[in-house]
From TrEMBL:
GO molecular function: RNA binding; RNA methyltransferase activity
SUPFAM superfamilies cross-referenced by the UniProt entry: S-adenosyl-L-methionine-dependent methyltransferases
Statement: the UniProt record of this protein carries the keyword Transcription regulation: no
Native organism: Taeniopygia guttata (Zebra finch)
Protein name (Swiss-Prot/TrEMBL): NOP2/Sun RNA methyltransferase 3
Length: 342
């Protein structure tokens, strides 16, 4: 058979295999909720989320390791810089490559004592980091830091005076430590504190201490939930989903407490769910008088070639919608600033 026909067979097999793994109970739940919330946008988003063979991966280079041939080999494989230079904040040291073709660049194994050259990620997960605009010398808190991709990205952008990476979950916390170890050289690691605190308590423990806080909150992970192998676990997740927004609100409130006046925070999730996104942010804006929204429209305009956003959002928030050829997201990002002490 011809190469094309062979390829077609392979794709059919892959589709058959992956089709079976879609968890119907989750899809039905999403179908109902997201048809109501996203209207016309949902059907094309659903097509991407249920078609893993069209998912894309970006490559974030590690500025702390030297691999001279890496950028040219990425270029040979059709990769280009993921972010245009015209952004409000884009440090030269942050180098991320993407391509429209699906598939992923080969991953690197963890080798003790050797730094990895790159981190594979969903390009949309760098938007919270770009929105945070970390500068050298700042005190920075990554409140829910595992698996560590955003922490690593922050350290590509700047050298904080103090960097606190927190992860409450024991297993995920070990994963976070390994990520940091794999990407960050020893002298810099001394500036990083890794803790396993309940993020809801950090505001009380360290009030008004940080210049910047990232709250990449625990959320419904739409992409992976659709492929839950265990239908009972899926049903349980969907039932517990309602409780997530109250946890997210408490984490945000703690983050606001931990911010010094004049400091700012970015809240992000990888769900499309309004209850975990805009609703949580509106609740914080309505209940904390000392918090103001920060306009993200400049960043959104700057990256509009690479990402598709839901229209009709407010200026301090954006929601990345996956679509074919730009299969990034879902990713919700909102930015707030603390104007005075509580």
């Amino acid at each position: 058979i011809s190469f094309q026909a062979h390829l077609h067979e392979l794709e059919k097999k892959a589709k058959g295999k992956l089709q079976k793994q879609i968890c119907q109970v989750v899809l039905d739940h999403f179908e109902k909720q997201y048809t109501a919330e996203l209207r016309d946008a949902w059907s094309s988003v659903r097509d991407v989320l249920t078609s893993p063979w069209c998912w894309q991966h970006a490559v974030l280079l590690n500025r702390f390791s030297q691999n001279p041939g890496l950028e040219s080999s990425l270029a040979e494989q059709g990769y280009h810089p993921a972010f245009p230079a015209a952004l409000p904040y884009l440090p030269a040291a942050l180098r991320c490559y993407s391509r429209t073709a699906p598939g992923r660049f080969p991953a690197q194994k963890h080798q003790p004592g050797r730094l990895k050259d790159y981190y594979l990620l969903n390009a949309a997960s760098l938007l919270p980091v770009l929105a945070l605009e970390v500068k050298d010398g700042e005190a920075v808190l990554d409140l829910c830091a595992a698996p560590g991709g955003k922490s690593v990205a922050i350290l590509q952008c700047a050298c904080p005076g103090h960097f606190h990476c927190n992860e409450y979950d024991d297993l995920r916390s070990r994963w976070l430590e390994q990520t940091i170890e794999s990407f960050i050289p020893a002298p810099l690691i001394n500036l990083i504190t890794v803790s396993k605190l309940d993020g809801r308590q950090i505001g009380d423990l360290q009030p008004e201490f940080y210049d910047k806080v990232l709250v990449d909150a625990p959320c419904s992970n739409d992409r992976s939930w659709l492929f839950s192998a265990d239908p009972q676990q899926a049903v349980l997740r969907l039932m517990q989903r309602k409780e997530l927004s109250s946890l997210q609100f408490q984490l945000l409130r703690s983050a606001v407490q931990a911010l010094r006046p004049g400091g700012s925070l970015v809240y992000s999730t990888c769900t499309l769910s309004r209850a975990e996104n805009s609703d949580v942010i509106n609740l914080i804006l309505n209940s904390c008088r000392n918090v103001m929204p920060v306009d993200l429209s400049g960043m959104a305009r700057g990256v509009s070639q690479e990402f598709t956003f839901l229209s009709g959002m407010q200026q301090h928030e954006l929601l990345v919608l996956p679509e074919k050829g730009r299969a990034w997201g879902p990713m919700y990002v909102a930015k707030l600033k603390k104007v005075s002490s509580t």
